[in-house]
Amino acid sequence: MLRQIGKRLATAIPSLIGVIIVTFLLTRVLPGDPAAYFAGPAASPQAIEEIRKSLGLDKSLPEQFVRYVQDLSRGDFGKSLTTGQTVIIDIKTRLPASAELTLLGLIVSMLIAVPFGILAAVKQGSIIDHACRVIATAGVSLPVFFTGLLLVYVFYFILGWSPAPLGRLDAFASAPKHVTGFYLIDSLLAGNLESFRASLAQLALPTITLAIFSLAPITRMTRASMLAVLSSDFVRTARASGLSPRTVIVTYAFRNAMLPVVTTLGMVFSFLLGANVLVEKVFAWPGIGSYAIEALIASDFAPVQGFVLTMAIMYVLLNLTIDMLYGVIDPRVRLEG
Amino acid sequence: MNRREFLKSTTAMAATAVAAPSVISSAKAQSRAETLLIVSESGPNNIDIHGVGTNVPGYEVSWNCYDRLISHEMKTGPNGAPYYDRDKFKMELAEDMKLGDMSATFKLKKNATFHDGTPVTAKDVKWSLDRAVSVGGFPTFQMGAGSLTKPEQFVVVDDNTFRVDFARKDRLTIPDLAVIVPAIYNSELVKKNATEKDPWGLEYTKLNTAGGGAYKVTGWTAGSEVILERNDAWKGGPLPKVKRIIWRMVPSAGNRRALLERGDADISYDLPNKDFVELKDAGKLNIISTPYSNGIQYIGMNVTQPPFDNLKVRQAVAYAIPYQKIMDAVLFGLAKPMFGAKPGTPTEVAWPQAHGFNTDIAKAKALLAEAGHPNGFETTISFDLGFAGVNEPLCVLVQESLAQIGIKCTINKIPGATWRTELNKKVLPLYTNVFSGWLDYPEYFFIWCYHGKNSIFNTMSYKSKELDGFVDGAVTAAANGDKGAYEKDVKGFVDLAFADLPRIPLYQPYVNVAMQKNVSGYQYWFHRRLDYRALVKG
Q: How far apart are CA B122 and CA B128, in angstroms?
């Protein structure tokens, strides 16, 4: 097993190298001039040149690339000019914020979408099936910033149920001691229930926003793959043998229908992690998506490269996890290097 | 997963969502009363104004965490609210300033200390000003605007006495010592944290406050919040009333407004104009609008290339701009018009002031025909996407209006990061932009925006020997205190700027600040950021 994982990781190396080269080149092709941007509004051409030099941007492209790779090999992702921190620190503090939100959103979405999809498949053509279709379509067609703002308007502004959309914590609360970076887990580890509740309250609206958005692919995929499985021979046999409908659906049919669902989950997760920029903006969430966008707007190369590289690594790990899950779900599928 | 579990889990979810409202405990309520919560779109990237590429929010931190030798008194502004007094200085770290003919001598407050308790000495002052003129980039540039360029100009007389020698007579030298840049640093602390590669310790001050100002930064998460605590040992002025400042970055303007209206945030100052107008009408909050000092939004034209090298074309554009529509539909009245002065209005010795153009399409058409473009021409109008909220609707209105006289404009949206690069190239034919100067003197504005030395802000590449003569004359007259010559020269360059019309002033933008009714003490400063030291809550 370990050897297979190792083999699998080794195949990811060429793609990572590709990612490094492509992001480096792409950021250099961007039209912005970071030196002019960071020299400030009143800079003379000479001041801009000084800054260009101090950023190392006066060197030729190959030279810059060699320096970049050398820094990378030491684990140095460079420095962000927009936040003033090293990219590593930024990503370390921001990735958990995004990951916590995305994971929770995905879990909520899954808790609703999977049962919904199964029901829709079992009672094909019924009201539930139609409701499933309508809700999923509506969820995916509402842009997240709209759903987000609507939720803030109703639950914070009108009803006052939700706390102020001020990011991960209320302005007057302090963050739990850093262990995992996931506030829910860290506050529980610290035994601080008040902090746990406060973080959960802050998470509620953005989580629901994300969940609504990701309902569609999961519901539809569950329904489709359940339909395929339900019409297969072994389900007919199981039914004919007099097994209870529950056993047939949950134990036999659903387990076999899970493979494509898990694949979709993986895809939705990685998609959400990068694409929840808008949710992060609406809820002032200090996540990695808004970080990358802000850096991109300022032509701040280092964070953009760091972000893309982190994402690439996460994709590789995610795919590996999903492949291993296949083996657990269906013993016929085994990892192959 | 079955139906029952599913139902259970969804009800649990719904329950947590409903149970979410936070109950503020009494300890929290106490700290709330002593804390000011500020929300704004973006935060600092560096808390030292001397740093490389420090952004404007960073200036606000520097202003409140560092002292300068001198600062400005307050007066009543155009809107009745406190407004800094350009001509009256008050002592901050200095207790006394003696102005000589070619130097100024400062006595330092004897009991003033830095945040770590070390006393402030003349040595620190010299080191700090040396740093400002030596690090390069914006701080050095700003010091240069007041003829402060060389470390030799800063002299330690004794531990408590410090002298600034003037390089030449310049009226801007003393005001330039009261801007944000000449902040006084704890030189020993910074030197201890400096490295060979970074002799001025910029890396250290980027993340740490090393001054003796009224506040110190105790927590900073880039892009999400800054926490400042009051320095109870501050000697630069009366002890500020607010103990703690929490400054949160909330990117969505709608949410900033919601936070204000719900009473969760105390102050916000970068909301869209429409929101400010609605908040003002609702009357639940205090809204203070102040025109930018020495600042103008304008339409610029590149005078080195056809068709805008032709004065008649520029005049045609000036008659075709829908001034009033821009005021109403883009700014919702929150700006001071800089157009439509009645014919015969005498030119004032002041800047900004209104020009005489008004929207007059027939006249514009005639001028364009005279200029040899009876059927108009095609061009592009560019703007900075970083300020799209105002710039985009403004350019659309101008585009519509110019189309009526046959000028077909394509709108060119330039991202914030490239805007300055594009300006520097000086090739944009037609664009809108804002300029505002910290030092509120007409000649200061003209040096940057119209003078033939062609700084980046002379975006039109306008060059006129005659105008340069007026500007240089005004600078000399001001330094020598020759009032008559000064007034003549200022009127001269203002008249010429309106006659040659390389740029068309539109309006003076407003700084809008919205705060809760129980927050008072807001002061307008030349840097347009908040001064926490004067704010009072409750």
A: 10
Angle at which helix B3-18 crosses helix A87-122, to 10 degrees, equals 130
> Residue A60 in contact with residue B159, Cβ under 8 Å?
no
This model of the complex carries an ipTM of 0.78
How far, rounded to the nearest angstrom, does the alpha carbon of residue B464 sit from its chain's CA centroid? Answer: 28
| Nearest neighbour of B22 by CB, restricted to A90, A201, A299 | A201
- HSE-CB of B535 using CA atoms within 13 angstroms: 28
Residues facing B433 on adjacent strands: B298
How confident is the model over B288-300, as pLDDT tens digits?
Answer: 999 988 999 999 9
Q: Is the peptide bond before B352 cis (omega within 30 degrees of 0)?
A: yes
Class of domain B67-205 as given by CATH: alpha beta
Distance from CA of B309 to the nearest CA of A (A): 25
Task: Give the C-alpha separation, B466 to B453, whole Å.
Answer: 13
Q: Is the domain covering B3-46+210-291+511-537 a CATH 3.30.70.100 domain? A: no
- Which are the contacts of A45, defined by CB distance < 8 A and separation ≥ 6? B424
| Residue range(s) of every CATH 3.90.76.10 domain in chain B | 67-205
Q: Burial level of B482, CB count in 10 A (0-12/13-18/19+)?
A: middle
Q: Is A234 on the interface with B (CB under 8 A)?
A: no
Flag if A33 and B418 touch (Cβ within 8 Å): yes
Q: How many CB atoms lie within 10 A of CB A11?
A: 10
Q: What pLDDT tens digit does each residue of chain B (538 aa) get?
A: 444 554 454 444 444 444 333 444 455 666 778 899 999 988 888 899 998 778 888 999 999 999 999 999 999 988 888 999 999 999 999 999 999 989 999 999 988 999 999 999 999 999 999 999 988 777 888 898 889 999 999 999 999 999 999 998 888 999 999 999 999 999 999 999 998 888 999 889 988 999 999 999 998 888 888 999 999 999 888 999 999 999 998 888 888 999 999 888 999 988 888 899 999 898 889 999 999 889 999 999 999 988 899 899 999 999 999 999 999 999 998 899 999 888 888 888 888 899 989 999 999 999 989 988 888 899 999 998 878 889 999 999 999 999 999 899 999 988 776 787 788 788 899 999 998 888 889 998 998 889 888 777 888 989 989 999 999 999 889 888 888 999 999 999 999 999 999 999 999 999 999 999 999 999 999 999 999 999 998 8
> CATH 3.10.105.10 occupies which residues in chain B?
295-509
Nearest to B85 by CA among B293, B312, B352: B293
What 8-state DSSP symbol labels residue B41?
Answer: S
Cβ <8 Å between A39 and B137:
yes
Determine the Cα–Cα distance for residues A269 and B186; give it in Å rounded to an integer: 49
C-alpha–C-alpha distance, residues B457 and B365, integer Å: 30
Among the partner-chain residues A32, A42, A294, the one whose CB lies closest to the CB of B138 is A42
Nearest-CB residue to B221 (from A47, A286, A290) = A286
Task: Map residue B463 onto helix, strand or coil.
Answer: coil
User: Where in chain B are all domains bearing CATH 3.40.190.10?
Assistant: 3-46+210-291+511-537
State the pTM of this model.
Answer: 0.83
| Topology adopted by domain B295-509 | Dipeptide-binding Protein; domain 3 (3.10.105)
Angle between helix A255-275 and A301-329 (nearest 10): 170
Interface of A with B in 201-230 (CB under 8 A): 201, 204, 208
